[in-house]
Amino acid sequence: MLKRIFGAALGSLALALTPAAAQDTSAAGPEIWRLDCGEILVTNLNVFSDSYLYEGRQKRLVDSCYLIRHGDRYLLWDTGLAPRMLGQTVEQGVFRMTLRERIGPQLARINVRPEQINFVGISHFHFDHTGQLADFPGATLLIGAEDWEVLRSGQGPEGLATPFRHWIDGGGTAEPVARDHDVFGDGSVVMLDMPGHTPGHHALLVRLRGRAPVLLSGDQFHFTEQVRNNGVPSFNTDRADTLASSDRLLSIARSLNAELIIQHEANDVARLPAFPESAR
Ligand SMILES: [Zn+2]
What's the 182 CA to ligand 1 centre distance in angstroms? Predict the structure, then answer.
């Protein structure tokens, strides 16, 4: 304990003696912006349950992406719907989708260029998370190793791997993530292994300085009601893994007092400041 207090005192002394300009800006902790990456009307909500939980219902979901700054480095978390949906309503099965604005112009509003994105983290390989990935060819791709294996080996349905082609063909750097991955090496931004929705599905923990940690769900849940009634989508790859991952995600939220943001749930996304405001 003494050592900890002494260490902390020394730490703040060192900080006080460092000229402001020379301080590493990452010492301020990460900063997060939420981005609008589309909207999805689900005309048969029951696809999100293998147990007939949501029969005869429809629901509007949002498609959100996130920019996280750590010092002078950037991580983009998920890349939303495809540019072909810009200003259109595109129907695909039970989904009616539209994209209001691409990620690039949104980043431009906060003076961030696509070339400044060091990492693109993809929660999982589904199309509503990978639509604009190709706009960031210089970024290192972070994706669950099991998802990467499906893409690389061409096992998935037709078109699944298309957004990843640049990285699969060796044009860009890919870092498949086995288990958890500490993105910036200081524990502030961590990809969390949450298999079940897809084999390599991940959530993202962002530990902010000025407010509770944020837990970005990936698609562990798609809307709030699923948390309460354990809604497992019928298209998930593994039911048991999904339930175990839900248990882990909720357990992490409790132990860290973190704010769980379900990425497709409009009410959750709205709890983060409206773009271009950020949280830190
Ligand atoms: Zn999704």
Answer: 23
Distance between Cα 229 and ligand 1 center (Å): 19
Q: How far is the CA of 270 from the centre of ligand 1 (A)?
A: 17
pLDDT in tens, 150-200: 999 999 899 999 999 999 999 999 999 999 999 999 999 999 999 999 999
Question: Each residue of 1-27: pLDDT tens digit?
Answer: 444 444 444 444 444 444 444 445 556
Give the Å distance between the CA of 130 and the centre of ligand 1.
10
pLDDT in tens, 209-229: 999 999 999 999 999 999 999
Distance 264 CA to ligand 1 centre (A): 7
Residue 228 pLDDT: 96
Q: What residues have CB less than 8 Å from 226, skipping those under 6 apart?
A: 48
Whose tokens are 């509007």? That residue is 60
177 Cα: distance to centroid of ligand 1 (angstroms): 19
Name all domains of the chain by residue range, CATH numbers in brackets: 28-269 (3.60.15.10)
Distance of CA 35 to the CA centre of its chain: 11
What does the angle CA 26 – CA 31 – CA 36 come to, to the nearest 5 degrees?
Answer: 150
Query: What is the 124 CA–ligand 1 centroid distance (Å)?
Result: 8
Q: CA separation (Å) from 25 to 21, 29, 43, 73? A: 9, 8, 46, 10
Please write the tens of the pLDDT for every residue from 66-110: 999 999 999 999 999 999 999 999 999 999 999 999 999 999 999
